[in-house]
Specification:
124 residues; mainly alpha; Double Clp-N motif; 7 helices; globular
Length: 124
């Protein structure tokens, strides 16, 4: 059986693979090609390790922190938004500040402040 830990890199890959969403819009506004970012990430993602007797899927502590940060950002900046969006998750990944997803974003010139500014600009 497989034990899967969902890391920040898996979260970012998931955001990229959803065809139309605000995280993709933010990346494109920052002149980042989502497909190139996905290729960069995919080369560093582990698929899991086989462990006898379990099939649990868990989030890494870093991924859990991303959700917490995304929620905090949504709560601080929401206008008419009724739910946490994919751009908030992208911002949470950048704010978490570690792991493969953060490193890949940094390699592509993306940081939390640029994401935050872009989200604000897209609202207006």
């Amino acid at each position: 059986m497989w034990v899967h830990q969902i890391g920040t890199e898996h979260l970012l890959l998931g955001l990229i693979r959803i065809e139309a969403n605000s995280a993709i819009d933010v990346l494109r506004a920052l002149e980042v090609d989502p497909e190139e970012l996905a290729e960069d990430l995919s080369s560093n993602v582990e698929l899991g390790t086989e462990v006898e007797g379990t099939s649990d899927v868990t989030f890494t502590p870093e991924s859990q922190q991303v959700f917490k940060l995304a929620h905090e950002q949504w709560r601080e900046t929401r206008d008419a938004e009724t739910q946490i969006g994919t751009a908030h998750l992208l911002l949470g990944i950048a704010l978490e500040g570690s792991g493969e997803a953060f490193t890949a974003l940094t390699r592509h010139g993306v940081d939390a402040e640029s994401i935050r500014k872009t989200i604000t600009q897209m609202k207006h």
